[in-house]
Amino acid sequence: MKIVSLFLFLVFNSASIFAGLNPGDKASDFSLVNVNGKKVSLSDYKDAKGFIIVFTCNHCPYAKMYEQRIIDLHNKYVGQGYPIIAINPNDPNEVPEDGMKQMKKLAKKKKYPFPYLLDEGQKVYPAYGATKTPHVYLLDKDKTVHYIGAIDDNAKDATKVNQKYLELAIEELKAGKDVTVKTTKAIGCSIKTKSKT
User: Fold this and answer.
1) pTM of full prediction above 0.85
2) Are strands 84-88 and 50-55 parallel, antiparallel or unpaired?
3) Is 86 within a domain?
4) Does some domain include residue 140?
5) How many separate domains does the chain show?
6) Is residue 2 included in any domain, yes or no?
7) At how many degrees (to 10) do helices 61-77 and 165-174 cross?
8) How far apart are CA 170 and CA 65, in angstroms?
9) CATH number for 126
10) How far is CA 76 from the centre of its chain?
11) Could you report how far apart the first and last alpha carbons of the chain are, in Å?
12) How far is the C-alpha of 114 from the C-alpha of 76, rounded, in Å?
């Protein structure tokens, strides 16, 4: 009986630890190094009306498909108070292509207009509950979560997108409305964590 109780305790507590954020939850701030060498936190954005947190990376084919769309989203909404903050959650020891040196090259090549941060130590993505690259979190200025999931419904072809989940959520949030679709399934590569020895 004690073994069963211990098992149930571990199951339920591990689920709560690794569940991450849900719509309505308040996200925690972070301080991560940008490709320019400076640390970035949400608290740096004094005039922001909200935040678009995108967990993404260099190597993932899905992340590559969304590079331009993420740039376009930032350019569309940063002036309206909703900047994109991109975070690479992968362990560079597992995927060398996702190291800071390579991140700097990609950011320069693509002329990223937003910060591209490395989740060194992999502490931020589990707190948020991200599992894929890309994986999006839309927050308001108080860091309350309003949307989690995919950017849209067609990773492979931007010209065939029918549902722009993130944009719809941003527009509803801007208008002071309750976000209609609060979660969708993020489609992408799994986050690469440090190998256990």
Assistant:
1) yes
2) parallel
3) yes
4) yes
5) 1
6) no
7) 20
8) 21
9) 3.40.30.10
10) 18
11) 32
12) 12
Contact 100, 58 (CB under 8 A): no
d(CA 77, CA 4): 51
Q: Give the model's confidence band at 13: pLDDT under 50 very low, under 70 low, under 90 confident, else very high.
A: very low
Domain that holds residue 157: 30-190
CA–CA gap between residue 148 and residue 1 (Å, rounded)? 39
Q: Which amino acid is present at 150? A: A
Which tens digit of pLDDT belongs to each residue from 143-158?
999 999 999 999 999 9
Q: Are 33 and 99 in contact (CB under 8 A)?
A: no
**pLDDT at residue 2, rounded to an integer:** 45
- Residue 17 in any domain: the answer is no
Q: Where are the alpha helices (DSSP H) in 39-164?
A: 61-77, 100-110, 124-128
Burial of 43 (0-12, 13-18, 19+ CB in 10 A): exposed
| CA 101 – CA 119 distance, rounded (Å) | 14
Q: In sequence order, which ranges of the chain are alpha helices (DSSP H)?
A: 2-18, 61-77, 100-110, 124-128, 165-174
pLDDT tens digit string along 156-172?
999 999 999 999 999 99
3-class SS shares of the chain: helix, strand, coil, % to 5: 35, 20, 45
195: phi then psi, degrees, rounded to nearest 5: -65, 140
